[in-house]
Write a structure and sequence with these properties.
The complex is a heterodimer of chains A (about 475) and B (about 450). By secondary structure, chain A is α/β, with parallel strands linked by helices. Chain A is built from 14 helices and twelve strands. In chain A, helix 3 runs antiparallel to helix 10, helix 6 crosses helix 7 and helix 11 packs across helix 12. Classes of the chains: A alpha/beta (about 475), B alpha/beta (about 450).
């Protein structure tokens, strides 16, 4: 087989500060056309000590070289489970840069912001239809921020009923953000053990009058649909609790099933996953939240509304949890997500979910004879293997690093925590059969290497510019900035 | 569908390999009673050209710095963005990458964040900076939570001159965590009232939160605040909504701030109707392990070469879960990259020059408006690039008249502050020429007659 990964000329590059040469400039400003004034001397610093002095060419070469050390979706297959690393359409980048969308100031009066507000309103309406929730806030800046907004609304709703309650149930397969967000709402986290899929019986055993909410992820982080979700919601509701859904895995469900129809009360979306906006090397994301009618009074302010006189920002909402951040949310991300939805349409989104699930099951079919599959239930958009059957004292980390040599971004590893040595693969719908075949071939080849020549895994990666890094040393004596 | 490569033939082959007859069989784990039995009701799919036309239509319905003379600030600023910034962040190795969990193939992102952390420390005068937060307001809220962790106290003093949306965000974050938030009024000069702050301080206070410059554009006396705040073992949080000011002003670190939380939008990030922006967050070494968010650290690889990794992650949610210092996961990585590129272009001389231009142009505008009949400048404290104007009539009426001349003259303050119905906040940056400022002044003068 021809391996995707190879070695080529890669350029080294110093830190920008090490290139600095006194007197160089990389900027231009117009001549000052008003009288020059000075601040009172006691308020003024001498200079920003340490700031670099670089020409425009220095800066362009510097960051261009750095970019070549990265691996993005545009570089190749990125099967990072639970992160939905699908292709980021280029037209979305173009429209987000249109002057009236990138250049509108958030304090622009409403009647001069009608295009922006309309876009937000239409995105809300689209997300409501996709998810089955009657109302949406676009304000949260990322998934975890959406979780916080959602759980604050849960708490506000309980407070309005007269008792905030004290506990939140969270299955052991949940993302770490779930317990962290519940804690920020003053709740005590009660972990719930699931056996791959959460059973209604387990939930019933944990439900009491102190449980404010159950937080579930559906499909869960094992890529399995929570098939008892309807009964689970009924049980939680019967005891006066609410059900929160982490919508990180919505890419399996568009046009297939709607969380709002399952009895779920609150859910956040990740526009940077399901709706194809780029992850940007860590962000920005956008984490809108959908809620049932009962929770509408508690939505963060402002709320975008539509009326005969146009689109408005509504602030006067006395029961609101308040504001999650400045202004209205990550608008630039919303523009991209809305462009994606308008490009795909209803049938296109459903097709995306279908092909995402097809791809995950295809990878599973090709690998399950070789890699240990801890849960046998039908997979949706992702599949989780373990390193149990990997020979040669090789572990998930070694497999991941060896995949890099083959030219792939590794899957999510060691998550979910319930699977020892988890290898969590989410191909997404934008990958072709050919790509998946090549990837699976690489996975199988690596399993063979683990048996026959495990040192190849232990030493990996060897084709990258730098090799495995000493993370222990980094944490023991942190060097978090350049100090010359 | 051009984003999905599967042909009918591919699908058949893949279904065969899986051992099912139809795509729908793959969804057998979803009970029928929760399946959607109809097509979703969404607008029809658009071809690329039609989509572009529709979005241009939306774009045209918005006022911008191109269509209007803009003097809007208040936490989002119209600064010039060099073309290099967008060109470089459009390298898709940067923008289509995920969080750098696999350092060997993420060194570009990691080194850039390390450089970003360094620039933030240099600018703020602090020891350590994280890899970014959502925006200035949420960074400010995280700072408040951190002071409670560090001091084990829960009373927080907040200057009334802090950006109101920062204040509201702090309130939301603290809503169910048993905090006591106390407002410290501002004095006649627009600065925080130091004697009121002194009275409110005590051994139960975790932090004092002050805008630097504050929402009125006024430069606070951080040094005096720091002495009082430290006197009772509390932390001083400087919230910087306009960090271009730090090119000129003494750094909060030099003045004694313990945490600097702010908004980095001014550094090459489009105003974009409020986001995505960039929360920056910097602290003292002593509080390192209470910090929220990701940190990038320097280390070496197996062969001794310099490299960078995410580090000290035992503070974070994916390891610590409910005991984490914050729930943040995705941050604003690409916006941090924009700021890094911007600041590397501006450099030591540019950050100073752009700050000085903002100062001089603002001073010119402020003097000219102060000289007009019917307008006064209520706060005498030193300002950077924003100032409050008081008119003889309600501010919205004044601003609406300016709009008739295609001028966005400022932000009315009546919505934020009681008793400020006649006041508005004017921002002047290097983007506003003398001719533009003169046009604003003339329009105000015309309206006043």
């Amino acid at each position: 087989m021809t391996t995707l990964g190879t070695s080529g000329l890669i350029l080294n590059e110093k830190l920008m500060f090490e290139h600095s040469d006194p007197g160089r400039k990389g900027y231009s400003l117009p001549a000052l056309d008003v009288p020059e004034v000075a601040m009172p001397a006691e308020l003024v610093r001498a200079e920003v000590t340490g700031f670099p002095e670089l020409s425009e060419v220095d800066v362009v070469r510097h960051f261009t070289r750095l970019s070549t050390w990265n691996y993005g979706v545009d570089s190749g297959f990125y099967p990072l489970g639970s992160c939905t690393m699908k292709y980021n359409p280029k037209i979305n980048e173009s429209v987000a840069r249109l002057p009236g969308l990138a250049g509108i100031h958030p304090a622009t009066p409403e009647h001069l912001s009608q295009g922006a507000l309309k876009l937000m309103y239409e995105l809300q309406t689209s997300l409501a239809e996709i998810s089955g929730f009657p109302a949406i806030t676009l304000q949260p800046a990322a998934g975890a921020h959406g979780e916080l907004a959602g759980m604050l609304m849960v708490r506000a709703w309980h407070e309005a009923q007269g008792n905030p309650r004290s506990k939140v149930l969270i299955p052991d397969t949940a993302h770490g953000t779930n317990p962290a967000s519940a804690t920020l709402c003053g709740y005590q986290v009660v972990p719930v053990t699931s056996d791959g899929v959460l059973s209604a019986q387990t939930v019933a055993a944990h439900m009491d009058d102190e449980v404010a909410a159950l937080m579930v992820t559906n499909p869960n982080t094992l890529g399995l649909f929570e098939s008892e979700i309807r009964a689970i919601c009924d049980i939680v509701h019967a005891k006066g609790g609410l059900v929160y859904c982490d919508g990180a895995n919505l890419n399996a469900l568009m046009g297939i099933a709607r969380p709002g129809d399952m009895g779920i009360d609150v859910m956040h979306f990740n526009l940077h996953k399901t709706f194809a906006t780029p992850h940007g090397g860590g962000g920005p994301g956008s984490g809108p939240v959908g809620v049932t009618e009962a929770l509408v009074p508690f939505l963060p302010v402002p709320v975008v509304t539509s009326s005969a006189s146009g689109y408005r920002l509504q602030y006067d909402r006395p029961q609101s949890i308040g504001r999650m951040r400045s202004f209205f949310g990550n608008f630039g991300v919303m523009v991209r997500a809305y462009a994606y939805i308008r490009t795909m349409g209803a049938a296109g989104l459903k097709h995306a979910s279908e092909m995402a699930v097809l791809n995950a099951n295809y990878v599973r079919a090709k690998l399950e004879g070789t890699f240990h599959l801890p849960y046998q239930n039908r997979s949706l958009h992702e599949v989780v293997f373990s390193d149990r059957d990997l020979d040669g004292d090789c572990h998930t980390l070694d497999l991941a690093k060896r995949l890099i040599d083959y030219g792939y971004h590794p899957p999510t590893i060691y998550f979910p925590l319930v699977v020892k040595g988890a290898i969590m693969i989410e191909p997404t719908e934008t990958e072709s059969q050919e790509t998946l075949d090549e990837f699976c071939e690489a996975m199988l080849a690596i399993a063979g290497e683990a048996r026959d020549n495990p040192e190849l895994l232990h030493a990996a990666p060897v084709r990258t510019r730098i090799r495995r890094l000493d993370e222990t040393a980094a944490a023991r004596k942190p060097r978090l900035k350049w100090e010359g | 569908m051009r984003y999905i490569p599967h042909t009918e033939e591919d699908i058949h082959q893949m279904l065969d390999a899986i051992g099912v007859d139809a795509v729908d069989d793959l969804f057998s784990g979803i009970p029928a009673d929760v399946r959607l039995q109809r097509p979703m009701n969404l607008a029809p799919a658009l071809a690329e050209g039609d989509l572009l036309r529709e979005f241009k239509q939306l774009s045209r319905q918005n006022a911008t710095g191109d269509s209007h003379l803009s003097f809007l600030g208040g936490g989002a600023y119209n600064h010039f963005i060099p073309a290099v910034v967008d060109q470089l962040i459009s390298r898709s190795e940067f923008y289509t990458a995920y969080t750098p969990y696999q350092p060997e193939i993420s060194q570009g992102t990691l080194q850039a964040i390390f450089e970003y952390q360094t620039l933030v420390c240099q600018l703020t005068g602090m020891d350590v900076a994280n890899a970014s937060m959502y925006d200035g307001a949420s960074a400010c809220a995280e700072a408040v939570l951190m002071t409670a962790r560090a001091t084990r106290r829960k009373k927080v003093l907040i200057s009334a001159a802090l950006h109101p949306e920062y204040r509201e965000t702090v309130e939301t974050y603290c809503r169910y965590l048993d905090f006591e938030l106390v407002t410290i009024p501002f004095a006649a000069d627009g600065r925080t009232d130091l004697s009121a702050m002194e009275k409110a301080l005590g051994k139960d206070v975790a932090a004092m939160v002050t805008g630097y410059p504050n929402f009125f554009g006024v430069v606070e006396d951080l040094a005096a605040q720091a002495i009082q705040v430290h006197g009772c073992g509390a932390r001083l949080v400087a919230a910087v909504a306009e960090p271009i000011a730090l090119g000129l002003l003494k750094s909060p670190g030099e003045l004694g701030a313990d945490i600097v939380a702010g908004e980095g939008q001014s550094f090459g990030i489009p105003v974009a109707f409020g986001g995505p922006y960039l929360g920056f967050f910097a602290a003292r070494q002593q509080d390192l392990r209470s910090m929220p968010g990701r940190l990038v650290g320097e280390t070496v690889d197996l062969e001794g070469r310099r490299g960078f990794v995410l580090t000290l992650s035992t503070r974070e949610q994916h390891i610590r879960r409910e005991k984490a210092t914050s729930n943040i996961c995705s941050n604003e990585g690409l916006c941090a990259l924009m700021a890094t590129v911007y600041l590397s272009l501006m450099g030591k001389a540019g950050i100073r020059e752009v700050a000085e231009q903002n100062l001089s142009k603002t001073d010119y505008a402020r003097r000219a408006i102060a000289a007009l009949d019917g307008y006064t400048i209520p706060f005498a404290g030193p300002v950077f690039n924003e100032f409050v104007v008081e008119s003889a009539e309600p501010a919205p009426a004044v601003l609406a008249r300016l709009e008739q001349q295609n001028i966005l003259g400022g932000i009315p303050l009546g919505r934020y502050f009681e008793g400020m119905a006649n006041r508005f906040l004017v921002c002047v940056t290097e983007q506003n020429s003398k001719a533009e400022i003169d046009a604003l002044v003339a329009a105000l003068a015309g309206g006043g007659q």
